[in-house]
Protein 1
Amino acid sequence: MVPVVAKELSKIYREGSLEVTAVASVDLEFQSGELIGLFGPSGSGKTTLLSMLGCMLKPTGGTLELFGQDITSLDERDLPAIRKKYISFIFQGFNLFPPLTVYENVMLVMNLKRIDPMVADQRARELLEAVGLGKRMNFLPRELSGGQRQRVAIARALAADAPLILADEPTGNLDHENGRTVMEMLKTLASEQNCCVVVATHDNRINDLFDRVVCMEDGRMLPEKRKET
Ligand SMILES: Nc1ncnc2c1ncn2[C@@H]1O[C@H](COP(=O)(O)OP(=O)(O)OP(=O)(O)O)[C@@H](O)[C@H]1O
């Protein structure tokens, strides 16, 4: 099943008499196993598009299908269940829960999914080892560097085992080396777990890692340049 199909997807923000067209009639189709880079200057509509794909923001026009299900026709109350089933988010601010340790942050998503605690414990340890934080499981987020925190956010996204991962500027606060490490993890995730990973970014230094690059300008999607294989 195709993870994301959008047709003429639009979002117009209205404030009083002022209208801002943040996303204008975007058509797209994202497949499993792909790492997709969503590029565009500030204000071009990347976050708005990502928020609609993540069922956090209702489109004002067009249709959106996630895994064959028409999201646009659903009631607002049904969206949390869709998010829980299919989607994991990685945001620039890391969104870690400050009072919980690294290990507890990763466990939290699995507890919410009611995964058996023994299975969850093992998976959390494995994932934190995999992102190089095996020795920092009992640290609090504030005791970690930006790069380490972002790796916790990635371990947590992996723990959620979602087939669609949406990341907004995941390398925004990171130096080149940490940024690349984080992106390489997302690439491995896409190919090995057959996830669809969409990354909104300004960071041209990581361009080569994407399977596909789509660019936005003034809310529109520019014609796509397919990567040569
Ligand atoms: N809640 C909102 N209300 C009104 N206008 C908004 C709102 N959110 C975004 N916009 C406007 O929509 C347009 C697209 O914004 P968006 O944040 O999606 O762009 P972006 O490409 O993610 O930018 P950046 O790279 O700076 O994060 C901008 O003109 C912005 O000012």
Note: The domain at 32-60+74-215+222-226 is CATH 3.40.50.300 (Rossmann fold).
Protein 2
Amino acid sequence: MITARNIRRRIGGLEDISLEVPAGACTAIIGPNGAGKSTLLDLLAGRSRADSGAVEFGGQPIADWAPLDLARRRAFLPQSLEVAFPIRVMDLVMLGRSPYHGRVSAQEDRAAAETALRLTDAWHLRDRAYQRISGGERQRVQLARVIAQIWRPGSQDGEPRMLLLDEPTASLDPGHRLAVMRLLRDLAIAGIGVVLALHDLNDAARFADQVVLLHQGRILSEGGPADAMQAEVLTSAYGAEAEVIRAGDAAPVIVFR
Ligand SMILES: Nc1ncnc2c1ncn2[C@@H]1O[C@H](COP(=O)(O)OP(=O)(O)OP(=O)(O)O)[C@@H](O)[C@H]1O
């Protein structure tokens, strides 16, 4: 549902990337610091433009989408969790609903925000000041904001919906990290396209349907986790010796030595 063809971007160092990010699947973009993951996510989200090549969303050039139509169908969670003004958690999540202004009832907006906060285990934070909650709590609240942005209850309208997330579990404790990865997998099963930059390769192995390994602005490998994350290519990308432990049908476990 998002297609990138031969995209290049000098700032960010991306070289000739072609990629299909389908609906109803979870795609993990992995790779070392500076590989180009955030740059690629930005381009796939239509937040920046490639110097050459094309990005399409739902079969149409992403730059041709009307901003509000695009905002109701795809949401982007950046790495930075800063908000420059004081705001209550519930109000921040309701900002995610601004593309629906005048289109759905205030009740529906509130219900979407509540559902998103409950899904990310952040409902209890709704009346707190965003600036005074912890880093991991902020990450869950921001995730709720982007889920609320594309939330349409019982939506079977076939319209593409996509979540693009830049390291959405970076600040989370192990319990919340797993809960968020399970949530993202469930959203993908429900038909939403999920694409996320990830440093935890074991989470990528366990939860992603498709893995894309970036290195120095190029795709080094891609495919299902077992195919895309083989020991040699990981060792070469990360500059540390990788071992991939496989046991039956379970997701491979990756250890660096
Ligand atoms: N605005 C910019 N101006 C100049 N160089 C940039 C800019 N943004 C990114 N870069 C460079 O482009 C490369 C890719 O950056 P990017 O943020 O996409 O990497 P990343 O894979 O997301 O890294 P990390 O894992 O550290 O988040 C890096 O070398 C970075 O220094």
Note: The pocket of adenosine-5'-triphosphate is lined by residues 11-13, 31, 33-39, 197 (CB under 6 Å).
